[in-house]
Amino acid sequence: MGDIFEAFSDDESAAEAKPQRKKRRGRSAAILVLILAILAGITVAVLPNVRDWITNGPASEIFSNSPEDYAEGEEGETIQVTIPSGSTGSDMATILFENEIVASREAFIDAFNADTGAGSIQPGTYQLPTHIPAERAVTLLKDHDAQRVDVQITIPEGFTRTQVHERIANLMDVDIADVVAASENAEAIGLPEEAGGNVEGWYKPGTYMVSPDTPVHEILGEMVTARTSELDSMGVPEGERQELLIKASILEREVNQTQYYAQVARVIENRLVDTDSVNGRLQMDSTVLYGVGKSGGIPTSEDLANDNPYNTYLHAGLPPTPIGAAGNEAMNAVLNPADGDWLYFVTVDLNSGETLFAATLEEHNANVARLNEWLAENPNYGREEAPEVGGADEGEN
Q1: 78-147 in CATH: which number?
Q2: Interval 339-353: pLDDT, tens
Q3: What's the whole-model pTM score?
Q4: How far apart are CA 306 and CA 232, in angstroms?
Q5: Residue 237 CB: number of other CB atoms within 10 A?
């Protein structure tokens, strides 16, 4: 009986508990509905403010996909920045960001990539305002003629070191003595040892864009580096470069028509080894003029008699240094001289540059006679006397 009673009692208790559980579940559901309603109300009331905080407020930088950029009207002071040669869009972005011209690297990179003309941006020093939109920065850099403040230094082929130094002094507004002093600091300008401390011929002709505050030794160093890089690219071994520059500089100042470079290069080679007719003497007017401090024209009898190491009428072999800045074509001609047995050449028309070559003195004298006829007809190019023997181009370079 006890077990039956107890079992019955348990069943009764279970029956009574079911309604209670139903009541509790109902209360829970009601509470959940109430909480959701409250949350919904809060969301409706707060969401616009949250959205504004994310879009326009302090959190905009965190949640926005657009990189930080300056707006129009925030422009600051104008400064100078330099874009080095070989800079990529990413390099430019870093430079502009670090100088506070643009607000972020990403903004400039996006503007650079979106502008199809951005590839025309050139290296150099630019004057730009700070705190400008990235798109405007790209536009200003493209307008290099208006924004660049570089000094353009052009070194023509054939220029002597003196002419180079004078041009740099004038364009950079510095004392010529300071330029000369800088040129004599071989270590500072990277002058190779084989140059013997003399920069003549080691400035590569060309156009250089430099910042107005660039030190003179850096300008000269850039020209020397450009020359050594050129020689390296041509495969000229160290120890042979000075001789190449000497020969090429003679071509550059002797010949005013590049079509004759290879033939004159052969004349130089033939004369250096000749022991019968010219005995190793080059007899070049250009070297004579250089030796007396002239950069062009026709040597006088006094010039030809001046005994100095560059007077190749008097001294056999090459002069001690180059006599100017040779161009690439002249150097290639030295490396690849034409085939021929010529020992002499003379320009018979100083206007057209027509040049004649000869293997014998008799042929050469006939060519010199043609030159003298031309000089008689053009007295402004006159000369006191023509050389008995010469390999010289009589033209002005």
Answers
A1: 3.30.1490.480
A2: 999 999 998 998 888
A3: 0.71
A4: 37
A5: 9
